[in-house]
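Standup, Tuesday
Yesterday: got the pipeline producing structure tokens again.
Today: sanity-check two examples.
Blockers: none.

Example 1:
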Amino acid sequence: MPIDFYYAPYSPPCWSVLMVAEALDLELNLKIVKTSDGEHLTPEYLKMNPQHTVPTIVDNGFALWESRAIITYLVNKYGKGSPLYPEDPQARALVDQRLYFDISTLYQRYMDYLIPQMLEPADEAKLKKVEEALGFVETFLEGRQYIAGDNLTLADYSIAASVISFNSVGIDAFKTPRIKAWFERVKTVPGFSKSEEGAKLFGNVVKEMINKKSS
């Protein structure tokens, strides 16, 4: 039975799930959630996910949300032994640290910079914090081919899904040499085209909202 996947095509956290599912050859029953129509606030959705966020999966009655939790779950259940989420405690801890960095620092700072622009001018101080976070990513890649080592892991999928949306709103995420070289490698992973398509949608949504504010 395929896994139900509730998502918004323009949402960066959804893209990593799509890529990981393709890498694991998992069938997803795609269910687009139109947040603009309040579909994430219906009683049915809230019963499944009281935080009313996307992405959300339902796997044989088991509901889970937060993209980084979802991708680790998918590998734990359907890709046991996969190098995407190594079983060695130290290697896995490094992947986990990068995933936590993504949700708490990189993507969070990006949203802190981006969302207020729907109502007010861009805050250059917040942009500096985004650039600092990208500097950390550049440091992570020192002496490594990928974010958490010399092999592709879930950390690459998660952080790639975050940074690919940066350029769509005018932030050059690939101006440093290690990130630029890493991104060229990551572009070859299964399902990456879904992120590129989503980034275009995301950029259009953001630009439309900012234009509405200024009109």
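Example 2:
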Amino acid sequence: MVRQCVFPLCPNKMTSFSKFSFHRLPLDSPGLLNVWLVALKMDPNTEIEDLNRASHRVCSAHFAPEDCIHTKPKKKGQEPQRQDLKRSAIPIVSEGATDAVEVNLFFFCY
């Protein structure tokens, strides 16, 4: 089964040849998880167990470049092979990802 990005209207799929990295929801941080769920237009009252079981992913197209940490060194002329997210990263509508979606984010201080 191929997973698809859960960002609204995003067509990106998690495949071995995808140019995107895919990131799990921050289930260990309730406040940040709530912000992510609002950004993803999901029910913020969804149980953690249900979210964990669903194993949702959000593709890297919905994060700003400064939200990413490259975990493998970049070889000359090549893209990094793996990216992790900073703890403060929140999914957003990014240029080129999808133009049909507009998301209202609530800012969260932690």
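Quick observation on example 2: Residues 30-39 form the longest helix (10 residues). Residues 96-110 have pLDDT under 50 and may be disordered.
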